[in-house]
Design a protein that fits this description.
Layout: H1 13-22, E1 27-28, H2 35-39, E2 48-49, E3 52-55, H3 59-72, E4 76-79, E5 88-89, E6 92-95, E7 102-105, E8 110-114, H4 119-127, H5 143-148, H6 156-159, E9 166-172, E10 178-181, H7 187-196, E11 202-209, E12 215-223, H8 228-238, E13 246-254, E14 269-277, H9 281-292, E15 297-300, E16 303-306, H10 311-314, E17 323-330, H11 335-345, E18 355-360, E19 382-389, H12 397-408, H13 427-434, H14 436-449
Parallel strand pairs: 2-5, 3-6, 4-6
Antiparallel strand pairs: 1-3, 7-8, 8-11, 9-10, 9-11, 12-14, 12-15, 12-16, 13-14, 13-18, 17-19, 18-19
Helix pairs in contact: 7-14, 8-11, 11-12, 13-14
């Protein structure tokens, strides 16, 4: 499982005409103007060779596309805004980027989010009511895909993963039905999709809880390369002392000499501390004091921020590029871990341009959701994420260096990973992310809902 999908026959002009007649949005074939733009993802290294691309404008378009594909035994991939960068070779590519909309219910503190909506739209809509979603470090990321993969944001240690606060979702399954999935109506499917991402169908909308947060004491500090050891060792002792209302991460960055970067950062190796505190600024500042004294700061931009401006904390890249990335979970961050990380990725390491981030977990991120879901990684103390631009000439050197960094801290690894922060393709890698019990449960749901493997792109959720 899944069994190979063998088309009944090569697709004909009549097949395509029928597909176009059943959806309201455009249908693109290979070579058509507009196909590349509609199927474009943030990660330009992902190559797609779909038999067709459906630009869905509504849930019924998704229903029609899935039914069409199922009847012809053509596998289906889905992508909204592109940060997920899903591969699709020989399948029907369903783009939901046009399905955008947010409906906030301030009394119930809920938001209904359509499949193609980015976090920026949700954050702004919620902020008008003094509320905030559990969005990530970049508001340009698609809200639905991020959430279905778990969703780790600045409020995570206090409230948990974004997927923990999904109350309902609309899902088109392999049988071509649009189903309203909740804990009461379809408990196993509801468990699996919240954390299992897009292996069980195409989500057309989700309903999520919002939280009464309007501002954070947050931002970042860039430290010099010479401060790497002192900052990382200070961080490993400081982070465990933080309350759950505080979140932190630290990144080793080899920055390019780009004009859009502030002068002190261009072309430099820096250590970037990212920090947020949901509480009074004076408390947040007092908690931060040991790290402010841990090294020589190049830039310090931590202060009171409205939730609509929290993109400035991590300052994630915004331009699409070819990427390589990998990640894992650490059970601890001790002195030996730090020394291994410095040796593999510090300023003296001979590696291509890479960003190496350690994100603090724990708190509500370590506790089971209610109702439970399939989000992996609750046993990790820290998330490791290694990412770099896969530029011409680095096709071999970058993955080799990145995997070397992951291997360097493997003695402290849990063996697992957060789905949104790793690259997995084999059944063995998939099983390692979830662990034996949850992986077996996911397989059972997959067999029940998609026995032919219509949705087979992405994590390899199969027996062999």
């Amino acid at each position: 499982m899944p069994t190979p999908l063998i088309p009944h026959h090569p697709l004909t002009d009549d097949d395509i005409r029928l597909l176009r007649s059943e959806v309201s949005g455009p249908v693109y074939l290979p070579g058509d103007p507009g196909l590349a733009e509609e199927a474009a993802g943030f990660d330009l290294a992902v190559v797609r060779r779909p038999v067709a691309v459906v630009a869905a404008g509504r849930a019924q378009d998704v229903v029609a596309a899935v039914r069409w594909a199922a009847e012809r035994r053509v596998p289906v991939a889905v992508q909204a805004t592109g940060h997920g960068s899903v591969p699709c070779d020989g399948g029907l590519f369903v783009s939901t980027r046009s399905m955008r909309g947010v409906l906030v219910n301030p009394e119930r503190r809920l938001a209904r989010i359509e499949a193609g909506t980015r976090w920026r739209e949700v954050v702004d809509a919620a902020a008008r009511h003094g509320l905030a979603p559990l969005s990530g470090s970049s508001s340009a990321v698609g809200a639905v895909g991020y959430t279905l993969g778990g969703g780790l944001g600045l409020l995570g240690r206090e409230y948990g993963f974004a997927a923990d606060h999904v109350t309902a979702l609309d899902l088109v399954t392999a049988d071509g039905r649009l189903r309203h999935v909740t804990a009461d109506a379809e408990p196993e499917l509801f468990w699996a999709v919240r954390g299992g991402r897009d292996q069980f169908g195409i989500v057309t909308a989700i309903e999520v809880r919002l939280f009464p947060v309007t501002t954070l004491y947050a931002g970042g500090i860039y430290f010099t390369a010479s401060s790497t050891a002192s900052v990382l060792h200070a961080y490993r002792t400081w982070a465990p002392t933080l309350p759950e209302s505080a979140s932190s991460s630290v990144a080793l960055l080899r920055l390019p000499p780009l004009e859009r970067l502030p002068e002190p950062l261009r072309g430099m190796f820096v250590v970037h501390l990212r920090y947020s505190y949901n509480g009074p600024a004076e408390e947040g500042e007092a908690l931060l004091a040991p790290m402010r004294q841990s090294g020589e700061a190049v830039l310090d931009h931590i202060g009171r921020l409205p939730v609509t401006e929290t993109d400035s904390v991590c300052q994630d890249p915004t331009e699409p590029m070819p990427l390589w990335h990998q990640g894992g979970l650490l059970r601890s961050l001790d002195a030996d871990t730090v020394e291994a990380l410095i040796a593999a990725a510090g300023p003296q390491a001979d590696v291509p341009p890479l960003a190496v981030e350690i994100r603090q977990l724990g708190g509500a991120l370590s506790r089971p959701a209610s109702p439970p879901n399939a989000v992996a990684g609750r046993d990790g103390a820290y998330c490791l994420h290694v990412v770099g631009p896969l530029l011409p000439g680095l096709e071999e050197a970058l993955p080799a260096a990145g995997n070397g960094i992951v291997d360097a801290v493997k003695p402290w690894s849990t063996g697992g990973a957060l789905l949104n922060f790793c690259s997995i393709s084999t059944p063995e890698e998939t099983a390692a992310v979830w662990g034996a019990e949850d992986h077996a449960r996911l397989l059972a749901v997959k067999r029940a809902e998609d026995p032919s493997g219509l949705f087979r792109f992405g994590p390899a959720l199969c027996d062999d």
